[in-house]
Design brief:
The structure is a homodimer. Chain A contains 18 helices and 38 strands. The first copy, chain A, has a 9-stranded antiparallel beta sheet. The radius of gyration of chain A is 26 Å and the shape is globular. The N terminus of chain A is likely disordered. Chains A, B: This is Sugar hydrolase. Chains A, B: GO terms for molecular function: carbohydrate binding; peptide-N4-(N-acetyl-beta-glucosaminyl)asparagine amidase activity.
């Protein structure tokens, strides 16, 4: 979700698949070696290039600009933009591809020399602050590692990260005193009043600890740190840049001096002096949401120096990326492995080593028997990111996600599952209760290790909490009325899908009454569908559709969420066949899909709306509502049309370059789409246990599943010319269906596509060969 | 410390002692019945009339005004002023007699009717808000209980308190809906930006919990609450009065409605609805510094309804006040018992029932084997309050104070003992390191139950922390130089005294090296004493005294702390004899004491200075530096002059009326002075184990000591006329000394004064009969 339309992006160069497998003269590089962390750090991706361990709590990455007053903050949501000429510092926390700004906690910057600026300075005026210019060619990054030569600071900076720690290494050019600036004001983004409170202290053993409580995207988010430099301090200064503080009480030992052992306030910056160093300075920093002792314990739990941590994290990445072995030309290899890399960052570890974490109620809880994860971008990730993680991460990790969601529901002041949570805090971003399909999909695909009955109860409770998002009206009327609640059309259809997943899980648990209730609710999408115009539309509480109606309009607080009727009318993933019948049948559905993809946008201007990027007509690949839509042709019996659209989308929306993502990566969803699509199938309706077959983009892929079995995809004859699926076999037998069952996938085996230059207009066209639809399945 | 000079107060009516014991026809009321909690709630006392248990964490008391923009906030430091015509609400936390404003947490006000105002309104405009008029005659208070009839609210309000809980009882006039307003904005005092963060939620079981983090006198103080009403809510509203919030993120279920289960922000107010009630509404509230679960556990730890809690706390007060049995006319009984009551509030319990508390580093700690107490107004209370508590409270309580101080030092980012701490937070108010004499005095008087070696180490560390209060200069030069550090003269002499107590404790522990170091430092008062003018003066770092010099000048940031040369020149309690020699001998010292008491202030104006109240010439009883000074005549061999001055002070500075304290009670110090003085002796130099004998103001007193023994004071023949001590016997034998030894006191026995109308000019005049002086004792 959330990415600005940039017209220039519609000119993205298409992938060239022409070189094919012939160029692979030597053994291809490993998955690890194929990742390019710079992909998505320009353009619309909002990725960061810094160091992170798989699902790590720390994302240690350069910030090129954190201030919102200089330029739009939206493009700097991850702190870094590839094209920026200066680096302001290195901070410990970043979202991978979010459309909203926050984090950027605990920015550190090396400064060399006798004068230590305490302000970042203006990027346009060299040496006006502690920020430094750098040469692009000096930058290098690989999973868990980032390095750059800072020209003004005359320092080589390297970053690596463990699970709860980040390690910085600075090689100062000899001959002048070395310092670090720790700017507790800096945030993504920085604005007056964001820091509610902060503190920093030097402990007798030299450990520097502190905290910051910020009001940003998340309210009153508290984060603590513990920092240990490899060299002793030769001096320090703690400064408070607050100008006017009413009745702040008396000052302590810091009165009139800046070398006190502790300082607290709302605009702190610290100078740490190291004198003349004869070896690189390493700075190890750990985080905790609990307290400073928690941060210290986390620091102690991951011993070793920079190189040791870097090697450990590299091994973790090699293992995590190693579950997928693909043969493909280098550009596609890079894109897919980087996509997999981007899929393995969130939800991220959030509890301390002792299990404690700060939850949605701002209280400290302890995760007993699991690791609490946070950063759930659920409106995005229920679609393909979580389904992908079920295939590439251990059951334990997936169960931990669900236990984290359930623990959050238990601690929620509202008694409901997370909506968009990070660092344990609810942000109420986007719509729906999409923790529900994440849990249902995992349960139906066999994930255990959590209390399924309690999970179902939490799901039902989340779907029944009246004050949330017009749910009381939805439960009364069968749809969300637009005169009572904004974005009502989008909410109605997303609730209906979520309800269907509750019903599916209830059936699996033998709870017939719950299942019946939610099977009925699953049909509520019909209440907002206008058969006359053929669009999903917002209804008023009196039952009429809201007028005037413009299916191309995109506005905040409108009938739709980050989109319009063109994109949202397709959101019936659980009952696409019924929706097509309402449209007038398969031919009409295909005509409408084509009308969307082929729409002439020349008279439209969406520059006012964020997150509208990656347009193909009225299809918007840069935002999630469109993500399943190219796969819908198959539901109308024309899978070759899906194959055409996927060719068009992959070729125009992904590139192995910094501006290579056409929309926000959204904590892995954009990337997970590519991983699935490259393999030739996609989870259109999580909860159905079906993957709709598209077309593969790699010559061969071997997926080592969490159960240890291997599932191989072969795309025989794949080339730019052979872009259509001619034949499909599963384990040597023809697969006449347009979908793969989850049970077939996890049993291991080989899915073989025979590619050809022309469409196969007979494969998987029969009604019985089409993917899941609730109505076809006998529900309603 | 800290109280404004009000000229009207110099007209305080003197005590009439004329009625004598003859009026006591029936058994006198108990100590409990003699307490008048309204004493000190007008005038300069800054006391509160509300409900508190001995040393309780909760002080549940009415606030008549909390806003600083309407009138000066200083007079409302305890929230309540006796003369105010309206009550704004009842809040859970108050200082008893502080000169600085903070607390006032979690204000609740009953509202009756269909319209519920959410603003307090203007006292001058009835019914302009939720505040209510009340009739003075409807008010009643006794230890642990307060009640008032609220006219506008048509509700009888009663308050009681346990250790960590407060209970409110509201009897709404029937016939209209009952509500409570919980105003999370209200504080002592309230100003924009004070609340850093706050939240409130209703839990599924009906418990209301929340928190507030404020930046007031203490920085970033966090306090949590749990509230249980006796009747179920029929509705509620949570509101946020913040006007402009940059980038606050999305809103949750509260969007567009006010009945969500939770709200967080910086300006919250809650409306709680109870409908038509047919019985009184009781509201039980517990506090915690740790988290909401801590508050809930504290709530559960003190079961029972309003009447049960009230009875339990009454019994606790009867026991605490019962250690002192006095015979005296009613006004003096009331004054002394109320003084004892005021002495038994702080330091107050701060850890939760499970031992956890938030310490000076803002981290959560656990008190193992003791109860953590906070609210240490040490600059005030080291003088007489802590010495009194050693005589009237169990050793365990006194040991807990010291363990709390030591735990605070351990958690201090600066590694030093508290200076002025409340709610676990350091405020850096006033000067000195007066935790040191508190610990030394307790140890030398036999209190055990803490690690004495660790305590001495903490004391030495506190006295050696260079960045604090010019200590690095003090250690280098032997005095604090005024060109480097403000209030240097006061600091020099207070450090010297504190140093002497370190030396005393080190000697007792056999640490000769530490003792020698600090015995030397104890003489540093000489370095700031100007023999030529006969005054303590501030020196520059070049050794010269600062000019110009005006011994009557009182200014902030001057050479002295809340005082001038007249008051501060007497602060050598540990070596008064040497100081008198510097002044030119006993006669010169007496002349100077008289010059101070008899000074003509008619040409001076101290209205700009707070805490300058209770003036007798240049003697200022309303502030602490003077408290020992009337006792100094005895050090010059003229104890009858002390007796005269005490008669003058007691008669002019204390009354059993709301305006009956001439200065801030300062967490019991003003009151403890009266308790000691009424008994006939005073701890001029805590650490000396001597009590200097003055003159008694009660006919008879029996003190039950912590060791179970009884010490009786008899003032034979006491009357307004018989104001001089004629004869003193201890256990029947003449006591020729002007002081009592602690060992003699705790052994139990009888101290009998025979009072007479004329001075006895021969008793206790010999040099050997005079109280402790370090130089006389052979030190230095």
């Amino acid at each position: 979700m959330i990415a600005s339309f940039r017209r220039t992006l519609s000119a993205l160069a298409a992938f060239s698949l022409a070189t094919g497998p012939l160029v692979a003269q030597t053994a291809p590089p490993s998955g690890y070696a194929s990742v390019d962390p710079f992909i998505g750090t320009g353009g619309e991706g909002h990725s960061f290039p810094g160091a992170v361990a798989p699902f790590g709590m720390v994302q240690l990455s350069p910030d090129t600009d954190t201030r919102c007053e200089i330029r739009a903050c939206y493009p700097h949501a991850a702190g870094y933009r590839y094209e920026d000429p200066t680096i302001q510092g290195f901070s410990m926390t970043h979202f991978s591809g979010a459309g909203h700004s926050d984090l950027g906690d605990f920015l550190v910057m090396p400064v060399r020399g006798d004068v230590v600026p305490l302000e970042p300075g203006d990027p346009a005026t060299p040496r006006s602050g502690y920020r430094s210019r750098y040469a692009k060619q000096s930058e290098t990054a690989s999973p868990g590692y980032y390095a750059v030569q800072l020209d003004d600071a005359q320092t080589r900076a390297e970053m690596t990260a463990g699970t709860r720690i980040g390690v910085q290494r600075y090689r100062f050019t000899p001959g002048a005193p070395a310092h670090l600036v720790l700017d507790l004001r800096s945030a993504l983004y920085t604005y007056p009043g964001k820091t509610l409170w902060s503190s920093v202290r030097i402990r007798p053993d030299g450990t520097i600890t502190g905290m910051r409580e910020t009001r940003g995207w998340a309210p009153a988010r508290k984060l603590y740190f513990a920092m240990r430099p490899s060299a002793p301090l030769t001096g320090h200064g703690f400064f408070n840049a607050e100008e006017k503080v009413p009745y702040k009480g008396f000052q302590g030992p810091s009165r009139g001096r800046d070398d006190a052992a502790q300082l607290a306030g709302r605009a702190l910056v610290a100078r740490l002096d190291f004198g003349l160093l004869d070896r690189p300075l390493e700075v190890k920093v750990a985080l905790s949401s609990v307290d400073e002792d928690g941060a210290i314990a986390n620091l102690d739990s991951e011993p070793g120096d920079f190189d040791a941590i870097r090697a450990r994290t590299r091994a973790a990445w090699e293992a995590a990326l190693g579950v997928l072995q693909i043969d493909a030309p280098a550009p596609m290899r890079t894109s897919v492995y980087t996509a997999l890399y981007h899929s393995l960052m969130a939800p991220s570890v959030f509890s301390d080593t002792d299990g404690r974490y700060r939850g949605p109620d701002d209280q400290v809880h302890r995760a007993e028997g699991f690791t609490f994860h946070s950063t759930f971008s659920l409106w995005d990730t229920f679609r393909a990111e979580h389904p992908l993680l079920l295939l590439v991460q251990p059951e334990r990790r997936n169960a931990d996600f669900i236990r984290s969601l359930l623990a959050s529901q238990q601690a929620s002041p509202f008694g409901i599952l997370p909506v968009w949570q990070f660092h344990g805090r609810e942000t109420w971003t986007m719509i729906g209760y999409h923790a529900v399909p994440v849990i249902a999909d995992a349960y139906l695909k066999g994930v255990r290790g959590f209390d399924a009955d309690a999970a179902l109860a939490a799901m039902v409770q989340s779907a029944s909490y009246g004050p949330y998002g017009g749910l009381d009206w939805y439960m009364r009327l069968g749809y969300v009325p637009i005169d009572k609640e904004p974005e009502a059309a989008s909410k109605t259809v997303e609730y209906a899908y979520d309800d269907w997943t509750i019903a599916r899980m209830a059936r699996a648990l033998g709870k017939a009454d719950v299942a019946a209730t939610f099977e009925k609710r699953a049909g509520n999408w019909r209440n907002s569908f206008d058969a006359k115009t053929g669009f999903l539309r917002a209804r008023l509480s009196d039952g009429s559709f809201r007028e005037p109606f413009d299916p191309t309009a995109i506005n905040y607080g409108s009938d739709y969420t980050e989109g319009n009727a063109w994109q949202y009318s397709w959101f019936v993933p659980h009952d696409q066949a019924a929706m097509f019948r309402l449209l007038g049948g398969d031919a009409a559905a295909v005509r409408k899909l084509d009308a969307m993809f082929d729409f002439d946008n020349s008279k439209l201007d969406y520059s006012h709306a964020e997150d509208i990027a990656g347009l193909i007509g009225q299809y918007i690949h840069g935002n999630e509502p469109s993500h399943h839509v190219a796969y819908l042709y198959g539901f109308a019996g024309q899978p070759w049309r899906t194959q055409e659209r996927l060719t068009q989308i992959v070729g125009s929306q992904y590139k192995p370059t910094p501006d290579g993502l056409s929309g926000n990566d959204d904590l892995g969803q954009m990337s997970a789409w590519l991983v699935f699509t490259a393999l030739g199938f996609y989870p259109v309706a999580p909860g159905s246990n079906q993957y709709v077959i598209g077309r593969p983009f790699v010559d061969r892929a071997v997926l080592t599943l969490p159960n240890g079995k291997r599932f191989t995809v072969v795309a025989s004859g794949l080339s730019d010319a052979n872009r259509y699926v001619g034949k499909v076999t599963l384990n040597g037998r023809p697969l006449p269906r347009g979908y793969l069952r989850h049970e077939e996938l996890v049993a291991g085996g080989e899915l073989r596509f025979t590619m050809q230059p022309r469409p196969n207009r007979s494969w998987a066209t029969a009604r019985a060969a089409r993917p899941y639809s609730a109505s076809a399945a006998g529900v309603r």
